[in-house]
Design brief:
about 725 residues; alpha+beta; Penicillin-binding protein 2a (Domain 2); Beta-lactamase; seven-stranded mixed β-sheet; six-stranded antiparallel β-sheet; 26 helices; 22 strands; about 40% helix; about 20% strand
Amino acid sequence: MKKTKRKKKTHVPFRMNMMFFVVFLLFSILIFRLGIVQIVQGEDYQRKIERTEDVTVNASVPRGKIFDRNVQVVVDNVPQNAITYTRKKGASQEEMLKTAEKLAKLIDKETDQVTERDKKDFWILKNEEKAKEKITDKEWQKAQENEISSKELYQMQIDRITEKDLKTLTEEDLEVLAIYREFTSGYAMTPQVVKNKNVTEEEYAIVSENLASLPGVNTTTDWDRSYAYDNTLKTVLGNISSSREGLPKEMVDFYLSRDYSRNDRVGKSYIEYQYEEVLRGQKTKVKNLTDKSGNVLDSQVVREGQRGNDLVLTIDMDLQLAVEKIIEEELGKAKSRGGHPLLDRIFVTMMDPNTGEILALAGKQYEVKNGKAEMNDFALGNLTTSYTMGSVVKGATVLTGYMTGAIHPGESLVDQPLKFAGSGGKSKSSWFNRGGAMSISDTYALMRSSNVYMMKTAMRIGGAKYRPNGPLKISPDTLPTMRRYFGQFGLGVRTGIDLPNEQIGFQGELTQPGLALDFSIGQFDTYTPLQLAQYVSTIANGGYRMEPHIVKEIRQPIAENGKLGPVVEEIKPEVLNRIDATPAQVKRVQQGFRMVMQSSQGTAQKYFRGAPYNPAGKTGTAEGLYDGPQREKYIERGQEVPMTWNVTLVGYAPHDNPEVAFSVVVPWAYQRGANSASINNIVGRKALDKYFELKAERAQEEKSDVVIEKDIRAKDEADNKEDTDNQ
C-alpha cells in the first residue's frame, strides 16, 4: 500500500506581509512628517538654515555723576527722549533713503550739520541719470577699459555738480538728507542717535506709533550731561564727545580695544577724560540673532547695564563759589579804575596742606566780546599757565641756603645795594634799603622781603664772595643746584595732580652769572598757581610735599534712597617727598612767614594783622616785560612791549596748626601810574575769611542739628513713658 506525504503549511507570506505593512507605515509617518516640515514649518526652518551669526552689540548707559565734598551735585545726567536708527547688515542706500523720507514727515530735523559734500552726494543719489550725464562718453569708455577707476569717476561727478544743481534740493530734501546722514554715520547693528535734542512729546508718540513702517527706527530714552553751575569749574570738569562725534579719531584704536563702540560718548578733557574708565559705566550687552539678510530674528540681553561710578570731588563748592565772587568783584573794581588795561585774570588755589585735597580752584578771565564785558571761568589756568612769581619763593631760597649749608638758621647778613663790575653802575637792592647797609636776620629778611639777603644766599651756594664793583665769580652749577632744591617744594616740576596737561613752567636760559641772583628772588623761572600752593603747603606742614588731588572718592552709583553708594576707592594722601631740611630749619621759615602777616613791619600786616585765625605767608611782586596774550599786538604795531608787575601771595592758617593753604596770582596787575599792587592781599584776606566763616557756620549748624536730635529723642522718650503710664 502506497503512503502519501502530507504537505507542510508555511507562515512566510504572513510574516512578509506584516513586515511590508510596518515598513509602509513607517514610510507613511516619515512622509507625513516631512510634509509638515516642508509645508507647515518650512519657512521657520528655512530662516533657521539661513542664520549666519550671533551679533553682540552694546547699548549706552548714563555716565557717573560728580559731587563736591559736601555731596552737592556738580555734574548730573538729564534724561531726554531720543529717536534712533539701527542699520541692519547689507542695508541698501535705497532702503535707508526710503525710511529717511518717511521719518522726515514725522519729525523736524535741523540741517545745520549738513555739509556741501553731503549735499553733492545726496544730489547724485537723487539724480542718478543727471549725474551720469556729468561724465562724457569718452570718459565712460575709459572707465570700461579700466583706465579710470570707479572712485575717480565718482569724484568727477562730485566736482562737476554746480551751485545751480544744489539749489534744486528743497528744504524737505535737506531735512531728509540730515536724517539720512545720521543713518549712514552709524555702524551695522549699532543704534545711532538720529535726534535727541528737543524731541517733542508729539514727535516721540507719532514715531512710536509708526515703527512698523520704519525699519530700523526706534524710540528710546537717552541722556545728556547737566552742569549745576554754568560758569564754575567748567574748564576743569571737561567735556564729553557727542554721539555724532563718537570716539576721538586719534584714540579710536585705544578705545575699541576696551570694548567701546565707535559712536560712544567719551570724556574729551580734564576730569571727564582723566576718570573716563570710572565714569563710563557698564554697558548693556545685547545678542541679536540675524539671518543672511541682516534681519534681526531675536534679541537676548546677555548682560544688564549699569550707570558709571560717581566721583566725589575734594572741592567745596560753597567755598569755590565764594572765592570766584571775590575774584570777580576785585577784578571788576580794578578794571573800572582804568589805567591797567593788561590786567585780565586772577587765580586762587586753596588746599589742605596735610592731605593735598584741593578745596577751591578758582580762576576768572576778563574778556570783552561784542562790546560786552564778561568774566569767564579760567580755573584751568591754575595748572596750565605759569608766571614769574616774585618774592613769594623766598622761603624756598632760605631753605635751600640751609640745606646746602650756605647759611644757617638765625644767621645775619648785611643788606646793602650790590654793585658788580660791568653792570653799568646799576645796583641790585632791597625795596626798603636803597642806599645804606644794615645787618638783618633770615626771619627779618622774609618779613621785609629782602632781595639782597636772598642774592647773597645764592652767591654763597655758588661759592662767590661779594666785592663792591668787583666781578661776580659764581659757579655755573648755582642755578641747576637751586632748581633741584626748589623742585623738592614742587616749584618747576609736576605737582602730580590728577588732571592731564599740567604745565611745569618755563626755565630761563642762563646767559650770565647774575641771573642766578634774579632766580633767588623769583624773577627768572615761571611757575603755576598750583605749584605755589603745593610749595607753601610743604612749608606749612613741616616739609612734606603732598600730592594735590581733586577727586576724594569713587563710589558706586547712588542708591535708591538718595544717599551715595558704597565707596569703591578712597584717594588717600600721598607724600611725594620730604625736603632735606630739618624740622628746626622749617620752623625758622615758618616764623618768618608768620611775621610777614602778623608783625608790624611785615609786608602783608596791613591786611592780615589781627586776623582771628593767625595766618602766615609771603607776598610777591615780579617785574618784567608783558608776556600775555596781547604781546603780539604791540610787536605788530612796532610798539614797545610795556613793563608790568605780577603780584602774588601765598599763605596758610592757623600758623601753628595749618588746615588750609593758598596761593593768589594776579598777572600784569599794574603799570607805573596805575597801581593795583594790593589786589593780591585783598583777594587773599577775603578768601581766608570766607573759609573760616563757612567753617564756623557749619559748626553751628552741626551743633543745632545735635540739639534738635536730642530734643526729638527726649520727646520720644517722654511719649513712650506716657504711653506706658496709661497702660
